[in-house]
Amino acid sequence: MTIGQTLARAFRRIYIRPPEPIPPEHRRLLWLVGAGTLIANYDVSLYGMALLQIQTTFGIAENAIADVNALFRLGVLPALALAYMADIVGRRLLLLVTLAGASIATVWTAFAQTTEEFIIAQLLARAFIYTEELICIVVIAEEFNERVRGWGIGALGALGALGAGLSAIVFASVNLLPYGWRALYFLGAIPLIYLLWLRRRLPETKRFQAADHRPELWRPLMALIANYPGRMGLLVAMAIPAAFASANIVTFQSKFLQSAHGWHPAQVSTMVVVGGIVAILGTTTAGTLSDRFGRRMVLSVAILVFAVCFGSFYGFASGPILIPLWIAGIFAFLMCDVLIGALSAELFPTSHRSLASAVRYFFWIMAGSLALYLEGTIYDWVGSHGAAIALLILPAPLALIPIWFLPEPAKKSLDDVAAERTP
Residues 343-383: pLDDT tens digits? Predict the structure, then answer.
C-alpha cells in the first residue's frame, strides 16, 4: 500500500466513514433530517452573505445592522414553545410543522417590501429553523447507538455546513440574477417544499414511542426541574460565553471582507466554498474524535482554536493570511456547534430532551443577541466592525470552566448518561 493510499484510508476512517456499519434505515433517517438542516442553514447563512445588498435595499444604517440581527434571534422564543411540544406530541409531527413553517416564511422573505416586513418574515423563519435544528439532533441522538452517536450528530452538522456553503455558491450570482438577493431566498424555499413531501413517511423515534407519555402539559417542565438542574445550569454557563463570542463572526464575514478589505462577492464566495470544503470536515471530525477521546476534551480544544483564529481574523490580520485563519476558525467553530448540540441532547432523558436542548439554545441565542446589540455600540466607539467583533470574542475561554464539571457522555448509552426519573 502506497503512502497516498494509506492517507486516503485514514482520511475516510476519521472524517467520513462511521466507526461501524450503520443500518439502512438509519442512513435514510440521517438524510431525511439532515436535508432539512442543510436547507435551513442555507436560509440562515444567506442573510450573512447578502447583508450588504439587503442593507442597501432597505437603507439600514451601519450602527443599526446589529439591532436588526438581534431582532431576528427573538425567533428563539416561539422555538422554545415548539421544542417543548416535541416532548409531548413527538419528534415526527414537529419536524413536519417546522419544515412547512420555514417554507412559508422563506417565500415571504423573498417578497418583503419594507424593513419591518423583512424582519418579521425572518424572525418567523428562524423560529421554525431553530426548532428544526434542535429536534434533528435529538432524533439522531435517540436513534443511533453510543458507538456511532457522535459520528451521526457530526454528519448532521456536516450537512448543515454544506447548506452554508451552498448559500456562498449562489451568492456569487447575486448581481446577475433577476431581483438579486430576493431570488436567492425564493430558490431556497423550493427544496423545503419537496422535502416536506418526502418526510411524510418519517418514523417516530423508538425512544419516544417507548417513553411513558402522559397528557399533562406541564410534565416536561417539571421533569426538567426535578431531574438534572445542575447539568442544565452548567450547560447554560458553558453556552453563554461561547455564543457571545461567536454571534457576529458569520453574520459579518461577507460584509467585513467586502468593506474592510475590498473583496468582491465572487472572491468571498470562492473563499467560503473552497475553504468551507475543508472546514466542513470539522463537524465529522468533532463527532469521530469525541467518540474516541470524549466530548469535553475535543470541545475545549475547539473553543480555544476558534477564539484565536477569529480574534486574529477580525482584529489585525490582512492579506492572504485571512484565508487560513478563516478556514481554521470555521473548522473549530463547526466542531463547537456540533459538540454543544450533542451535549444538550445526550445529558437529559427522553421525557424532556427536546426541552432541555431548547433551553440551552434559548440562552445561546439570547447571549448572541446581546453580543449583536453591543457590536453596534462598540462600533460607534471604535469606528470599525472588525475591532468591535474582535473585542466581543475575548470572553470565549470562560466556556472552558463549566465543561469539565459536566459528565462525559461519549461511549455511554443514553440511559446510562441520564436515567429517567419520575418528577
Answer: 999 999 988 899 999 999 899 988 988 888 888 789 888 88
Domain of 323, in residue numbers? 28-204+214-409
What grid cell was written down for 36? 432539512
In a domain, 162, yes or no: yes
Residue 63: inside a domain:
yes
Domain count, the chain: 1
Helix axes 353-382, 115-143, angle to 10 degrees: 140
The reply to whether 420 falls in a domain is no
Rg (the chain; Cα; Å): 20
The domain that holds 153 is classified in CATH as: 1.20.1250.20
pLDDT tens-digit readout, 282-310: 777 788 888 888 999 999 999 999 999 99
Whether residue 283 is contained in a domain is answered as: yes
